[in-house]
Inverse folding.
DNA sequence: CAACTATGTGAACGGTGTCCACATCGTGGT
DNA sequence: ACCACGATGTGGACACCGTTCACATAGTTG
Protein backbone atom coordinates (compact mmCIF):
# COMPACT_ATOMS: atom_id res chain seq x y z
CA UNK A 1 0.00 0.00 0.00
CA UNK A 2 2.45 2.60 -1.13
CA UNK A 3 0.65 4.86 -3.62
CA UNK A 4 -2.94 5.74 -2.83
CA UNK A 5 -4.99 3.19 -0.96
CA UNK A 6 -6.31 0.13 -2.75
CA UNK A 7 -3.65 -1.60 -4.80
CA UNK A 8 -4.79 -4.93 -3.45
CA UNK A 9 -2.69 -7.69 -4.99
CA UNK A 10 0.27 -7.97 -7.30
CA UNK A 11 -0.16 -5.23 -9.83
CA UNK A 12 -2.88 -3.23 -8.21
CA UNK A 13 -6.28 -3.26 -9.85
CA UNK A 14 -5.32 -4.56 -13.25
CA UNK A 15 -8.85 -4.76 -14.53
CA UNK A 16 -9.49 -1.03 -14.39
CA UNK A 17 -6.09 -0.37 -15.89
CA UNK A 18 -6.78 -2.68 -18.82
CA UNK A 19 -10.16 -1.11 -19.46
CA UNK A 20 -8.53 2.33 -19.39
CA UNK A 21 -5.87 1.20 -21.87
CA UNK A 22 -8.55 -0.53 -23.93
CA UNK A 23 -10.47 2.73 -24.23
CA UNK A 24 -7.22 4.42 -25.25
CA UNK A 25 -6.64 1.84 -27.97
CA UNK A 26 -10.24 2.05 -29.13
CA UNK A 27 -10.04 5.84 -29.30
CA UNK A 28 -6.96 5.53 -31.51
CA UNK A 29 -7.82 2.66 -33.81
CA UNK A 30 -11.44 1.68 -33.40
CA UNK A 31 -12.86 -1.56 -32.04
CA UNK A 32 -10.49 -3.87 -33.89
CA UNK A 33 -7.49 -2.13 -32.33
CA UNK A 34 -8.31 -3.26 -28.82
CA UNK A 35 -6.51 -6.58 -28.51
CA UNK A 36 -5.70 -8.62 -25.46
CA UNK A 37 -1.99 -8.89 -26.13
CA UNK A 38 -1.50 -5.22 -26.94
CA UNK A 39 -3.52 -4.14 -23.91
CA UNK A 40 -1.54 -6.46 -21.66
CA UNK A 41 1.71 -5.24 -23.20
CA UNK A 42 0.85 -1.59 -22.50
CA UNK A 43 -0.12 -2.53 -18.95
CA UNK A 44 3.31 -4.11 -18.54
CA UNK A 45 1.82 -7.51 -17.91
CA UNK A 46 1.77 -10.97 -19.44
CA UNK A 47 -0.96 -11.75 -22.00
CA UNK A 48 -2.32 -14.58 -19.88
CA UNK A 49 -2.80 -12.24 -16.93
CA UNK A 50 -5.76 -10.74 -18.75
CA UNK A 51 -7.67 -13.98 -18.35
CA UNK A 52 -7.77 -13.49 -14.57
CA UNK A 53 -10.07 -10.51 -15.16
CA UNK A 54 -11.82 -11.18 -18.48
CA UNK A 55 -13.14 -14.48 -19.82
CA UNK A 56 -11.92 -13.44 -23.27
CA UNK A 57 -11.31 -10.60 -25.64
CA UNK A 58 -14.99 -9.93 -26.22
CA UNK A 59 -15.42 -9.30 -22.53
CA UNK A 60 -12.71 -6.63 -22.57
CA UNK A 61 -14.30 -4.98 -25.58
CA UNK A 62 -17.64 -5.07 -23.83
CA UNK A 63 -16.14 -3.28 -20.83
CA UNK A 64 -14.65 -0.67 -23.16
CA UNK A 65 -18.06 -0.22 -24.77
CA UNK A 66 -19.65 0.25 -21.38
CA UNK A 67 -17.20 3.04 -20.59
CA UNK A 68 -17.81 4.63 -23.96
CA UNK A 69 -21.57 4.45 -23.42
CA UNK A 70 -21.15 6.30 -20.14
CA UNK A 71 -19.18 9.02 -21.90
CA UNK A 72 -21.91 9.29 -24.52
CA UNK A 73 -24.49 9.73 -21.78
CA UNK A 74 -22.40 12.43 -20.15
CA UNK A 75 -22.08 14.25 -23.45
CA UNK A 76 -25.85 14.24 -23.85
CA UNK A 77 -26.48 15.28 -20.30
CA UNK A 78 -23.95 18.10 -20.57
CA UNK A 79 -25.59 19.41 -23.72
CA UNK A 80 -29.04 19.27 -22.14
CA UNK A 81 -27.85 21.00 -19.00
CA UNK A 82 -26.67 23.95 -21.05
CA UNK A 83 -30.16 24.99 -22.10
CA UNK A 84 -32.35 26.68 -19.56
CA UNK A 85 -34.26 24.20 -17.43
CA UNK A 86 -37.52 25.93 -18.29
CA UNK A 87 -36.77 26.09 -22.00
CA UNK A 88 -39.31 24.52 -24.35
CA UNK A 89 -39.06 20.73 -24.31
CA UNK A 90 -38.31 20.86 -27.99
CA UNK A 91 -35.10 22.70 -27.23
CA UNK A 92 -34.09 20.14 -24.65
CA UNK A 93 -34.70 17.22 -26.98
CA UNK A 94 -32.70 18.91 -29.70
CA UNK A 95 -29.90 19.62 -27.22
CA UNK A 96 -29.78 15.92 -26.31
CA UNK A 97 -29.44 15.08 -29.98
CA UNK A 98 -26.62 17.58 -30.35
CA UNK A 99 -24.83 16.03 -27.40
CA UNK A 100 -25.16 12.60 -29.00
CA UNK A 101 -23.89 13.87 -32.33
CA UNK A 102 -21.00 15.85 -30.88
CA UNK A 103 -19.79 12.76 -29.07
CA UNK A 104 -19.90 10.86 -32.35
CA UNK A 105 -17.92 13.60 -34.10
CA UNK A 106 -15.33 14.24 -31.40
CA UNK A 107 -14.68 10.63 -30.43
CA UNK A 108 -15.31 8.95 -33.75
CA UNK A 109 -13.41 5.75 -33.04
CA UNK A 110 -15.01 5.36 -29.65
CA UNK A 111 -18.41 5.94 -31.18
CA UNK A 112 -17.70 3.24 -33.73
CA UNK A 113 -17.15 0.85 -30.86
CA UNK A 114 -20.67 1.57 -29.73
CA UNK A 115 -22.18 1.49 -33.20
CA UNK A 116 -20.62 -1.88 -34.01
CA UNK A 117 -21.63 -3.15 -30.59
CA UNK A 118 -23.46 -6.39 -30.08
CA UNK A 119 -24.09 -6.32 -26.40
CA UNK A 120 -25.36 -3.35 -24.49
CA UNK A 121 -28.27 -4.92 -22.67
CA UNK A 122 -28.92 -3.52 -19.23
CA UNK A 123 -27.97 0.17 -19.32
CA UNK A 124 -28.44 0.46 -15.54
CA UNK A 125 -31.89 1.93 -16.16
CA UNK A 126 -31.43 4.95 -13.92
CA UNK A 127 -29.52 7.50 -15.98
CA UNK A 128 -29.48 5.44 -19.15
CA UNK A 129 -29.39 7.82 -22.12
CA UNK A 130 -32.52 6.25 -23.52
CA UNK A 131 -34.36 6.62 -20.23
CA UNK A 132 -33.47 10.30 -20.18
CA UNK A 133 -34.62 10.68 -23.75
CA UNK A 134 -37.94 9.05 -22.86
CA UNK A 135 -38.34 11.58 -20.09
CA UNK A 136 -37.61 14.51 -22.39
CA UNK A 137 -40.03 13.18 -24.99
CA UNK A 138 -42.61 13.00 -22.26
CA UNK A 139 -42.08 16.71 -21.78
CA UNK A 140 -42.96 17.25 -25.42
CA UNK A 141 -46.60 16.42 -24.76
CA UNK A 142 -46.95 19.54 -22.66
CA UNK A 143 -45.93 21.61 -25.67
CA UNK A 144 -48.24 23.15 -28.21
CA UNK A 145 -49.76 20.45 -30.42
CA UNK A 146 -47.48 17.60 -29.59
CA UNK A 147 -47.45 13.86 -29.09
CA UNK A 148 -49.88 11.88 -27.02
CA UNK A 149 -49.22 10.76 -23.51
CA UNK A 150 -49.53 7.00 -23.23
CA UNK A 151 -46.36 5.10 -22.65
CA UNK A 152 -46.34 3.24 -25.96
CA UNK A 153 -46.63 6.39 -28.03
CA UNK A 154 -43.93 8.04 -26.00
CA UNK A 155 -41.65 5.05 -26.60
CA UNK A 156 -42.36 5.12 -30.32
CA UNK A 157 -41.58 8.82 -30.50
CA UNK A 158 -38.31 8.28 -28.65
CA UNK A 159 -37.35 5.53 -31.07
CA UNK A 160 -38.07 7.76 -34.05
CA UNK A 161 -35.87 10.49 -32.61
CA UNK A 162 -33.14 8.07 -31.59
CA UNK A 163 -33.13 6.56 -35.07
CA UNK A 164 -32.70 9.90 -36.76
CA UNK A 165 -29.90 11.04 -34.47
CA UNK A 166 -28.11 7.70 -34.50
CA UNK A 167 -28.48 7.50 -38.26
CA UNK A 168 -26.99 10.90 -38.99
CA UNK A 169 -24.22 10.16 -36.49
CA UNK A 170 -23.29 6.91 -38.18
CA UNK A 171 -23.51 8.36 -41.66
CA UNK A 172 -21.24 11.25 -40.64
CA UNK A 173 -18.61 9.11 -38.92
CA UNK A 174 -18.40 5.76 -40.69
CA UNK A 175 -20.93 6.18 -43.45
CA UNK A 176 -21.41 7.87 -46.78
CA UNK A 177 -21.14 11.38 -45.32
CA UNK A 178 -17.88 10.88 -43.45
CA UNK A 179 -15.87 13.07 -45.85
CA UNK A 180 -18.25 16.02 -45.66
CA UNK A 181 -16.65 19.04 -43.92
CA UNK A 182 -17.57 19.39 -40.26
CA UNK A 183 -19.64 22.59 -40.46
CA UNK A 184 -21.77 21.03 -43.17
CA UNK A 185 -22.17 17.94 -41.00
CA UNK A 186 -23.57 20.12 -38.24
CA UNK A 187 -25.97 21.72 -40.71
CA UNK A 188 -27.18 18.28 -41.74
CA UNK A 189 -27.63 17.34 -38.11
CA UNK A 190 -29.78 20.42 -37.55
CA UNK A 191 -31.92 19.60 -40.56
CA UNK A 192 -32.34 16.02 -39.44
CA UNK A 193 -33.15 17.02 -35.87
CA UNK A 194 -35.64 19.66 -36.97
CA UNK A 195 -37.29 17.20 -39.33
CA UNK A 196 -37.63 14.52 -36.67
CA UNK A 197 -38.97 16.84 -34.01
CA UNK A 198 -41.38 18.47 -36.43
CA UNK A 199 -42.56 15.05 -37.50
CA UNK A 200 -43.68 14.24 -34.00
CA UNK A 201 -46.46 16.82 -34.17
CA UNK A 202 -49.75 16.24 -35.96
CA UNK B 1 -13.10 -24.26 -72.28
CA UNK B 2 -15.17 -27.20 -71.20
CA UNK B 3 -18.05 -25.89 -69.08
CA UNK B 4 -19.61 -22.64 -70.24
CA UNK B 5 -17.41 -20.24 -72.08
CA UNK B 6 -14.92 -18.16 -70.11
CA UNK B 7 -12.86 -20.26 -67.70
CA UNK B 8 -9.71 -18.59 -68.88
CA UNK B 9 -6.78 -19.85 -66.81
CA UNK B 10 -6.13 -22.41 -64.14
CA UNK B 11 -9.13 -22.33 -61.91
CA UNK B 12 -11.48 -20.31 -64.01
CA UNK B 13 -12.41 -16.85 -62.77
CA UNK B 14 -11.27 -17.16 -59.19
CA UNK B 15 -12.02 -13.58 -58.32
CA UNK B 16 -15.76 -13.88 -58.82
CA UNK B 17 -15.77 -17.18 -56.98
CA UNK B 18 -13.98 -15.66 -54.01
CA UNK B 19 -16.35 -12.73 -53.88
CA UNK B 20 -19.28 -15.12 -54.00
CA UNK B 21 -17.83 -17.17 -51.15
CA UNK B 22 -16.98 -13.97 -49.29
CA UNK B 23 -20.61 -12.90 -49.47
CA UNK B 24 -21.59 -16.33 -48.21
CA UNK B 25 -19.22 -16.02 -45.25
CA UNK B 26 -20.38 -12.49 -44.53
CA UNK B 27 -24.00 -13.57 -44.62
CA UNK B 28 -23.22 -16.28 -42.07
CA UNK B 29 -20.87 -14.55 -39.66
CA UNK B 30 -20.72 -10.85 -40.42
CA UNK B 31 -17.79 -8.82 -41.70
CA UNK B 32 -15.18 -10.39 -39.42
CA UNK B 33 -16.02 -13.85 -40.75
CA UNK B 34 -14.76 -13.11 -44.24
CA UNK B 35 -11.09 -14.07 -44.08
CA UNK B 36 -8.64 -14.66 -46.84
CA UNK B 37 -7.58 -18.12 -45.74
CA UNK B 38 -11.10 -19.38 -45.16
CA UNK B 39 -12.32 -17.97 -48.47
CA UNK B 40 -9.40 -19.55 -50.30
CA UNK B 41 -9.97 -22.83 -48.49
CA UNK B 42 -13.63 -22.95 -49.56
CA UNK B 43 -12.61 -22.13 -53.08
CA UNK B 44 -10.24 -25.11 -52.99
CA UNK B 45 -7.23 -22.93 -53.55
CA UNK B 46 -4.05 -21.89 -51.78
CA UNK B 47 -4.16 -18.83 -49.50
CA UNK B 48 -1.54 -17.05 -51.57
CA UNK B 49 -3.64 -17.42 -54.70
CA UNK B 50 -5.96 -14.76 -53.36
CA UNK B 51 -3.23 -12.16 -53.74
CA UNK B 52 -3.33 -12.53 -57.51
CA UNK B 53 -6.80 -10.97 -57.43
CA UNK B 54 -6.89 -8.81 -54.30
CA UNK B 55 -4.14 -6.61 -52.85
CA UNK B 56 -5.22 -7.70 -49.39
CA UNK B 57 -8.07 -8.75 -47.18
CA UNK B 58 -9.62 -5.28 -47.08
CA UNK B 59 -9.95 -5.38 -50.83
CA UNK B 60 -11.91 -8.63 -50.68
CA UNK B 61 -14.18 -7.23 -48.01
CA UNK B 62 -14.70 -4.13 -50.13
CA UNK B 63 -15.78 -6.29 -53.04
CA UNK B 64 -18.19 -8.13 -50.76
CA UNK B 65 -19.58 -4.79 -49.58
CA UNK B 66 -20.06 -3.69 -53.16
CA UNK B 67 -22.12 -6.80 -53.87
CA UNK B 68 -24.14 -6.26 -50.71
CA UNK B 69 -24.77 -2.64 -51.65
CA UNK B 70 -26.13 -3.80 -54.98
CA UNK B 71 -28.49 -6.19 -53.23
CA UNK B 72 -29.65 -3.38 -50.96
CA UNK B 73 -30.36 -1.22 -53.98
CA UNK B 74 -32.35 -4.03 -55.57
CA UNK B 75 -34.38 -4.48 -52.40
CA UNK B 76 -35.27 -0.80 -52.40
CA UNK B 77 -36.07 -0.74 -56.08
CA UNK B 78 -38.24 -3.82 -55.77
CA UNK B 79 -40.19 -2.27 -52.92
CA UNK B 80 -40.71 0.95 -54.83
CA UNK B 81 -41.79 -0.87 -57.98
CA UNK B 82 -44.57 -2.54 -56.03
CA UNK B 83 -46.49 0.67 -55.43
CA UNK B 84 -48.37 2.19 -58.34
CA UNK B 85 -46.19 4.45 -60.45
CA UNK B 86 -48.71 7.29 -60.08
CA UNK B 87 -49.07 6.81 -56.33
CA UNK B 88 -48.36 9.83 -54.15
CA UNK B 89 -44.63 10.49 -53.87
CA UNK B 90 -44.96 10.03 -50.14
CA UNK B 91 -45.91 6.41 -50.71
CA UNK B 92 -42.95 5.84 -52.95
CA UNK B 93 -40.50 7.33 -50.48
CA UNK B 94 -41.95 5.21 -47.71
CA UNK B 95 -41.73 2.13 -49.91
CA UNK B 96 -38.05 2.82 -50.51
CA UNK B 97 -37.52 3.01 -46.78
CA UNK B 98 -39.32 -0.28 -46.32
CA UNK B 99 -37.10 -1.90 -48.93
CA UNK B 100 -34.02 -0.63 -47.11
CA UNK B 101 -35.30 -1.88 -43.78
CA UNK B 102 -36.40 -5.27 -45.07
CA UNK B 103 -32.96 -5.86 -46.47
CA UNK B 104 -31.48 -5.01 -43.09
CA UNK B 105 -33.84 -7.44 -41.37
CA UNK B 106 -33.59 -10.33 -43.82
CA UNK B 107 -29.86 -10.18 -44.42
CA UNK B 108 -28.71 -8.88 -41.07
CA UNK B 109 -25.10 -9.98 -41.30
CA UNK B 110 -24.76 -8.65 -44.82
CA UNK B 111 -26.26 -5.36 -43.73
CA UNK B 112 -23.74 -5.18 -40.90
CA UNK B 113 -21.02 -5.38 -43.52
CA UNK B 114 -22.42 -2.25 -45.09
CA UNK B 115 -23.05 -0.47 -41.80
CA UNK B 116 -19.52 -1.08 -40.58
CA UNK B 117 -18.17 -0.14 -43.98
CA UNK B 118 -15.46 2.40 -44.45
CA UNK B 119 -15.33 2.63 -48.18
CA UNK B 120 -18.33 3.04 -50.41
CA UNK B 121 -17.25 6.02 -52.44
CA UNK B 122 -18.44 5.99 -56.02
CA UNK B 123 -21.78 4.15 -56.10
CA UNK B 124 -21.83 4.27 -59.92
CA UNK B 125 -24.02 7.36 -59.73
CA UNK B 126 -26.70 6.09 -62.10
CA UNK B 127 -28.89 3.76 -60.06
CA UNK B 128 -27.18 4.43 -56.75
CA UNK B 129 -29.72 4.02 -53.96
CA UNK B 130 -29.06 7.55 -52.80
CA UNK B 131 -29.53 8.97 -56.28
CA UNK B 132 -32.87 7.22 -56.52
CA UNK B 133 -33.85 8.56 -53.14
CA UNK B 134 -32.93 12.08 -54.24
CA UNK B 135 -35.19 11.65 -57.23
CA UNK B 136 -38.08 10.42 -55.12
CA UNK B 137 -37.62 13.30 -52.68
CA UNK B 138 -37.76 15.60 -55.65
CA UNK B 139 -41.17 14.19 -56.35
CA UNK B 140 -42.28 15.19 -52.87
CA UNK B 141 -42.28 18.84 -53.78
CA UNK B 142 -45.13 18.31 -56.19
CA UNK B 143 -47.20 17.05 -53.28
CA UNK B 144 -49.49 19.09 -51.08
CA UNK B 145 -47.46 21.39 -48.85
CA UNK B 146 -44.07 19.85 -49.22
CA UNK B 147 -40.41 20.71 -49.40
CA UNK B 148 -38.82 23.35 -51.58
CA UNK B 149 -37.24 22.69 -54.89
CA UNK B 150 -33.64 23.86 -54.89
CA UNK B 151 -31.00 21.16 -55.00
CA UNK B 152 -29.53 21.86 -51.57
CA UNK B 153 -32.88 21.57 -49.79
CA UNK B 154 -33.65 18.39 -51.66
CA UNK B 155 -30.30 16.95 -50.60
CA UNK B 156 -30.90 17.92 -46.99
CA UNK B 157 -34.32 16.30 -47.02
CA UNK B 158 -32.85 13.12 -48.48
CA UNK B 159 -30.20 13.03 -45.75
CA UNK B 160 -32.84 13.43 -43.05
CA UNK B 161 -34.83 10.53 -44.48
CA UNK B 162 -31.75 8.39 -45.00
CA UNK B 163 -30.65 9.03 -41.43
CA UNK B 164 -33.97 7.95 -39.97
CA UNK B 165 -34.17 4.78 -42.05
CA UNK B 166 -30.54 3.85 -41.56
CA UNK B 167 -30.80 4.58 -37.86
CA UNK B 168 -33.83 2.37 -37.25
CA UNK B 169 -32.22 -0.34 -39.39
CA UNK B 170 -29.02 -0.31 -37.35
CA UNK B 171 -30.85 -0.18 -34.03
CA UNK B 172 -33.00 -3.14 -35.04
CA UNK B 173 -30.15 -5.31 -36.32
CA UNK B 174 -27.05 -4.57 -34.26
CA UNK B 175 -28.32 -2.00 -31.80
CA UNK B 176 -30.41 -1.67 -28.71
CA UNK B 177 -33.59 -2.90 -30.41
CA UNK B 178 -32.16 -6.08 -31.88
CA UNK B 179 -34.05 -8.35 -29.47
CA UNK B 180 -37.43 -6.77 -30.15
CA UNK B 181 -39.80 -9.19 -31.95
CA UNK B 182 -39.99 -8.66 -35.69
CA UNK B 183 -43.58 -7.43 -35.97
CA UNK B 184 -42.85 -4.76 -33.37
CA UNK B 185 -39.74 -3.82 -35.32
CA UNK B 186 -41.87 -3.21 -38.38
CA UNK B 187 -44.23 -1.08 -36.32
CA UNK B 188 -41.30 0.99 -35.15
CA UNK B 189 -40.13 1.36 -38.71
CA UNK B 190 -43.54 2.66 -39.73
CA UNK B 191 -43.55 5.19 -36.90
CA UNK B 192 -40.05 6.35 -37.77
CA UNK B 193 -40.85 6.62 -41.47
CA UNK B 194 -44.08 8.48 -40.86
CA UNK B 195 -42.35 10.86 -38.49
CA UNK B 196 -39.55 11.60 -40.93
CA UNK B 197 -41.83 12.13 -43.90
CA UNK B 198 -44.24 14.26 -41.89
CA UNK B 199 -41.29 16.32 -40.68
CA UNK B 200 -40.42 17.33 -44.22
CA UNK B 201 -43.61 19.37 -44.52
CA UNK B 202 -43.98 22.84 -43.05
C1' DC C 1 8.15 -24.86 -80.63
C1' DA C 2 9.91 -21.27 -77.50
C1' DA C 3 9.39 -17.38 -74.58
C1' DC C 4 6.40 -14.83 -71.81
C1' DT C 5 2.96 -13.66 -68.70
C1' DA C 6 -0.84 -14.85 -65.86
C1' DT C 7 -2.08 -17.69 -62.32
C1' DG C 8 -1.57 -21.07 -58.39
C1' DT C 9 1.66 -23.51 -54.69
C1' DG C 10 4.35 -24.28 -50.44
C1' DA C 11 6.86 -22.71 -46.89
C1' DA C 12 7.99 -19.20 -44.03
C1' DC C 13 7.45 -14.84 -40.78
C1' DG C 14 5.33 -12.23 -37.33
C1' DG C 15 1.17 -11.50 -35.16
C1' DT C 16 -3.03 -12.89 -32.65
C1' DG C 17 -6.43 -15.26 -28.96
C1' DT C 18 -6.49 -18.92 -25.81
C1' DC C 19 -5.06 -22.46 -22.62
C1' DC C 20 -2.01 -24.92 -19.42
C1' DA C 21 1.39 -25.98 -15.75
C1' DC C 22 3.86 -23.44 -12.71
C1' DA C 23 5.45 -19.34 -9.76
C1' DT C 24 4.38 -15.77 -6.48
C1' DC C 25 2.12 -13.17 -3.13
C1' DG C 26 -1.53 -11.52 0.24
C1' DT C 27 -4.56 -13.39 3.65
C1' DG C 28 -7.23 -16.11 6.95
C1' DG C 29 -7.49 -20.20 10.12
C1' DT C 30 -5.43 -22.40 13.88
C1' DA D 1 3.36 -17.01 14.35
C1' DC D 2 2.92 -20.14 11.14
C1' DC D 3 1.16 -22.46 7.20
C1' DA D 4 -2.01 -23.73 3.80
C1' DC D 5 -4.89 -21.71 0.46
C1' DG D 6 -6.82 -18.93 -3.00
C1' DA D 7 -6.09 -15.02 -5.86
C1' DT D 8 -3.09 -13.21 -9.24
C1' DG D 9 0.77 -13.10 -12.70
C1' DT D 10 4.36 -15.84 -15.85
C1' DG D 11 6.29 -18.49 -19.70
C1' DG D 12 5.53 -21.50 -23.08
C1' DA D 13 2.77 -23.81 -26.12
C1' DC D 14 -1.01 -24.43 -29.85
C1' DA D 15 -3.70 -23.23 -33.70
C1' DC D 16 -5.00 -19.78 -36.50
C1' DC D 17 -4.53 -15.54 -39.22
C1' DG D 18 -2.68 -12.07 -43.04
C1' DT D 19 1.17 -11.41 -45.83
C1' DT D 20 5.33 -12.35 -48.64
C1' DC D 21 8.56 -14.77 -51.36
C1' DA D 22 10.74 -18.12 -54.38
C1' DC D 23 9.09 -21.48 -57.26
C1' DA D 24 5.80 -24.35 -60.30
C1' DT D 25 2.37 -24.60 -63.81
C1' DA D 26 -0.52 -23.49 -67.61
C1' DG D 27 -2.46 -20.72 -71.38
C1' DT D 28 -1.08 -17.25 -75.01
C1' DT D 29 1.64 -15.16 -78.39
C1' DG D 30 5.39 -14.78 -81.44
Amino acid sequence: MNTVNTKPYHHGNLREEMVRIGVELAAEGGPEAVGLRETARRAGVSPSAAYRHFPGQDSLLEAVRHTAADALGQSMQHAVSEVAADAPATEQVIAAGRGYFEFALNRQMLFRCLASGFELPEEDSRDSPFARLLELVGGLKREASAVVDDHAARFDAAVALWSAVHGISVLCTSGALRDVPQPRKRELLEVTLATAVRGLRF
